[in-house]
Amino acid sequence: MPISDFIPDGLVPLHAILSSVGLLIYAVGSHALQQRRHPAAAIGWVLLILLMPEVGLPLYLMFGTRKLPKAVRRADARAEPGPAPAGVPDWVHRLTASMALPAPASYQALHVHADGADARLALWDTIASARVRLDVCTFILGSDDFGDEVLDRLAERARAGVAVRLIVDGVGTWMGGRRDFTRAAEAGVQVARFAPPFRAPLLQPWRGRTNLRTHRKVVIADGLRLWGGGRNLSGEYFEGRGGEAPWADLSFDLRGALVQSAQAQFDADWVFANARRGGAFEAAGAAMPGAPDAVVAAPGLPIGQMIPSGPDFADDTVHALLITSCYRARDRILIVTPYLVPDENLLTALALAARRGVVVDVVMPARSNHRLADIARRRPMRDLAAAGARLWLTPTMTHAKAVVVDRHMALAGSVNLDSRSLFLNFELMTAFYVPSEIARFEAWIDALRHTAQRARPQPVGLARHVGEGLVLWLAFQL
Prior knowledge:
The structure is a single chain. This protein is of the alpha/beta class. It folds into 3 domains: 9-64; 105-294, Endonuclease Chain A (Endonuclease, Chain A); 307-477, Endonuclease, Chain A (2-Layer Sandwich), CATH 3.30.870. The chain is 40% helix and 18% strand. The chain is built from 18 helices and 18 strands. The two termini are 32 Å apart.
């Protein structure tokens, strides 16, 4: 029975007009802004606009943007890269250069945090080390004792004359418990909520930012020292909360030229979060160097590279790097992620790597903090297990995000292996290329894997198969 049978006769022409206009806006917007979409997301938007244009069109205008207009122009900056620095695979160097990513740079004093207590001490030390400028970006700042201490320490630095900026995601602010930033602001901390969904002018549909979240997590002191990884600034990510055990998470800190890339990315995010108010901080004095556009390598020091991804890049940078790595892997792919909901391309690349003899280990929690994600992961788990991949389930919540490929690259940072993280969020990973440094991340993940049990997914009945399919259809928005 056609949808028009449920619409009063006088409204049928209006419905048809709205459907046509909505589909035209979707087609033109997708083409003009190069909004390449996951097939499930594209089908979902088309059906919603076609069947319920009165609802679908406003939702598309508010939530449908996946890439920012400036991201298209970034692709024009591509140039033929110079020779790859020592230790960086040539294919990685060419691929990252083609996507306008920051160039590799040297670093020193890498510290991979053993656990939450170690991460907390490193965080306090990084904050205390700031003398001129301190920048913090997080998805969630918890409304708990740990979040209180973070703000207290930022306020102390601000009162000492350090220029302090804090970015907290607009949705993450609600998820963390609607924290009050008044006292920190009074102490001199500049606070920006990144794309708050319920505040004008972000509800203006032509801005298209409502569904775009920052998931980047960094603390940068004086443009010289970086603390980063997957931890939000809340108690459960460090030493536990409410009497519960802390989550297993991965973070690190380092120093050196590589920090300049993270600093430049934060500066761009600050401008985005503050619209036209972004210049106020620079006027206060604290100019720092931008991201290197050519390789910055100090003799004898290891080389790393910042790999940001999100709506501000024309390409899906981390996704492209992961897929290419899977096809080039020869020995082992080691992954830790809280959520395993990859798109079909990445799932196929991982499965084919396992089928041709690469050892594929995926570590994840037996039960995560997102029930829908646990349902959505069942089908890809069965596909990977059938291909020969080994799936490991940790007894407690694991929030770490890292990928190690063959000892030629380790990626660690904020990206989950789900479609929202890979295709919608503003994210930041760091690539490490020195085998001895890569081995440290591999050892950290393997230690976690040894606490886990091997998962052996079993076939399911028709009803569960259909239910999983429906959840996967929505997984792009998880």
